[in-house]
Amino acid sequence: MVGKASLLLxxxxxxxxxxxxxxxxxxTTRAGENFFEYYSKEVAHQIAVSGVNIAATKVYKYGKWNxxxxxxxxxxxxxxxxxSDTAGVDTVKVATIxxxxxxxxxxxxxxxxxxxxxxxxxxxxxxxxxxxxxxxKPGDEVWGPLHTxxxxxxxxxxxxxxxxxxxAGQGINSPPKNSKTQFLGxxxxxxxxxxxxxxxxxxxxxxxxxxxxxxxxxxxxxxFKPNGNVVVYQNSTPIYPDPGTPIYTLAPNGAIYSEGPIVxxxxxxxxxxxGLTVGTGDNLIFKNQIVYDNDxxxxxxxxxxxxxxxxxxxxxxxxxxxxxxxQGALMTVNGSxxxxxxxxSGTFNYYGSVYQQDRGNATMxxxxxxxxxxxxxxxxxxxxxxxxxxxxxxxPYLIAWYE
Length: 403
Prior knowledge:
This protein is α/β, with parallel strands linked by helices. It has two domains: 2-113, no CATH class; 119-390, no CATH class. The chain has helices spanning 2-62, 119-122, 200-209, 247-250, 364-367, and strands spanning 67-73, 76-84, 91-100, 103-113, 126-130, 135-136, 141-143, 146-148, 152-154, 161-162, 166-168, 172-173, 182-183, 187-189, 211-212, 220-224, 229-234, 237-246, 255-258, 262-269, 276-280, 284-286, 290-292, 306-310, 314-316, 323-332, 337-339, 347-358, 369-374, 396-402. The strands form four sheets. Strands 5, 7, 8, 10, 11, 13, 14, 15, 19, 21, 24, 26, 28 and 29 form a 14-stranded parallel beta sheet that branches. Strands 16, 17, 18, 20, 22, 23, 25 and 27 form an eight-stranded mixed beta sheet that branches. A hairpin with a 6-residue loop joins strand 2 (76-84) and strand 3 (91-100).
């Protein structure tokens, strides 16, 4: 009996050990296969990434070009395809396919090219060159692409929401991956775009077949009428009194300029598809808000387009008015959006596109609850003679990268 029991025990041990070794062998085989699959997929991905970087070098060197090329790369295969002016837009699409041991991965990048018109900036809801340490506060929301050449600051709160892509030349403080602030459209750092250095195109247009305000030492005041007229004052003296004169009788090409300060008295802007740009070589002061007669927020086919350009600051007179609604493109070439009374709070509901050299440190833009919404029409249709890049025309820049 003892001998039989020993034999059965030995047989059982042999079966167990055989099964164990088989399972261990299967696990080892699967581990090897998993490692090979992971390694192969990663190599395929890195081949595709390398392809985009190689293609990007070509784009930055040669600009827009078309090519399809396939060649061996890192013991695998790399196929690069470049398509210029995709869908009629001034862009280049780069698609690269990495193939390693039958495993395939694709990476796509889009590049744009700086144009001399204002679309370099009007494609953003807010473009800032210097942030001045000013941060976004709880309750602020932004719809549309936002760019800063500096460091984006935010108060790390979940009620701060960026609905579209954020790009920042010098980074984001604090980093989005560790913050409560919502970057719903993603973000990218290290992106830099040149700033505006002159408004000569607008000045020349106003001097030719536009309207040049007659005095550089006086203040021009302008009020917009819903019928397409404008009322114009020299200081407090009417030049074109109420009910005003038609915009395109005053400025047939849609360009108005004054070397002195301009005060916007408010009103409803009614233009043709040609649009209107009002510029000053000094400050531009809002006494009251302006909105479009045909609201593009509810009617995207609206023709109403206006740009307001200041060489220095754009100042909101919030002495009595604390809740603002504003529509139009705003540009302050050497200044910022700021306010008269630094100790008031309220709301700022904006629809359009802002360019500012410096982020305003007025309490209005620190403590005011801000709602910035991009007027998407401006991406391809800026106001007439709206300032664009002064240097680097045709220079490529990265729009998006998909892995």
